[in-house]
C-alpha cells in the first residue's frame, strides 16, 4: 500500500473521530441548553418522577400551571434535544423521559470522571451511578487509592 493511501486512511479515521466527538459534544450542549430554562427543567424533573408511562400534555400543563401553547414549545424543545419522547393515544399526546437520551447525556458528562476512574465518585465505567453513598470518606479514599488516585491531592 502506498504512503498516500495509508495517509488517506488515517485522515479518514481522524475525520471520523473528529466528527463523532463534535457530534457528541453538540448533542450534549443541545440537551444542557434545553434544561437551562426553568419551566423545561421543571417539566423534565416531573417526567423523571412519573417514569416510563409519562403523562398526557394536558396533565403536564395543569401540574406546571403553564399555558398549553407555551408548554407545547417547551416539550418540543426537550424532545428535539433527545430528553423526552412522545406518542399519541387517540387524541392525547403523552410525554415521558427518553431514558436512553438521558443516559447518553449523563455518560457524556461523566465519562472522564476522576481521571478515568469514575468509581471514585460513585459512577460505573461507561456511565451510571452506583449506590455507594453509604461509604465513609476513608472508604472513598481506599477506592481512590486502589485506582491509583489520591482524592485529596488529585
Characterization of the model:
The chain is mainly alpha-helical and 154 residues long. It has six helices and three strands; from the N terminus they run H-H-E-H-H-E-E-H-H. The protein has a three-stranded antiparallel beta sheet with strand order 1-3-2. Helix 2 packs across helix 4.
Write the layout of secondary structure elements.
Layout: H1 3-35, H2 38-50, E1 55-56, H3 57-64, H4 68-80, E2 84-89, E3 92-97, H5 99-110, H6 137-146
Antiparallel strand pairs: 1-3, 2-3
Helix pairs in contact: 2-4
Features:
single chain; 154 residues; mainly alpha; three-stranded antiparallel beta sheet; elongated
Question: Short description, anyone?
Answer:
The protein is mainly α and 154 residues long.
Number of continuous helical runs: 6
How would you spell out the order of helices and strands?
HHEHHEEHH
How much of the residues is beta strand, in percent? 5-15%
Tell me how many strands there are.
Answer: 3
Mean pLDDT: 78
Shape: elongated
Indicate the radius of gyration in whole angstroms. 21 Å
Strand order of the largest sheet: 1-3-2
Overall structural class, as computed from helix and strand content, comes to: mainly alpha
Largest sheet descriptor: 3 strands, antiparallel
The percent of residues in helical segments reads 55-70%
Low-confidence segments, given as residue ranges, are: 149-154
Distance between the termini: 45 Å
Amino acid at each position: 500500500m502506498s504512503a498516500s493511501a495509508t495517509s488517506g486512511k488515517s485522515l479518514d479515521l481522524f475525520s471520523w473521530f473528529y466528527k463523532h466527538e463534535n457530534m457528541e459534544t453538540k448533542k450534549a450542549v443541545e440537551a444542557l441548553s434545553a434544561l437551562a430554562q426553568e419551566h423545561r427543567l421543571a417539566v423534565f424533573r416531573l417526567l423523571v418522577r412519573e417514569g416510563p408511562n409519562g403523562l398526557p400534555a394536558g396533565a403536564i400543563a395543569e401540574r406546571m400551571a403553564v399555558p398549553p401553547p407555551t408548554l407545547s414549545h417547551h416539550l418540543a424543545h426537550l424532545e428535539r434535544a433527545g430528553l423526552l419522547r412522545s406518542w399519541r393515544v387517540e387524541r392525547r399526546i403523552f410525554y415521558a423521559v427518553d431514558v436512553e437520551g438521558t443516559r447518553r447525556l449523563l455518560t457524556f458528562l461523566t465519562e472522564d470522571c476522576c481521571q478515568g476512574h469514575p468509581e471514585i465518585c460513585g459512577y460505573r465505567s461507561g456511565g451510571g451511578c452506583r449506590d455507594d453513598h453509604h461509604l465513609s470518606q476513608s472508604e472513598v479514599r481506599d477506592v481512590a487509592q486502589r485506582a491509583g488516585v489520591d482524592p485529596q491531592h488529585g
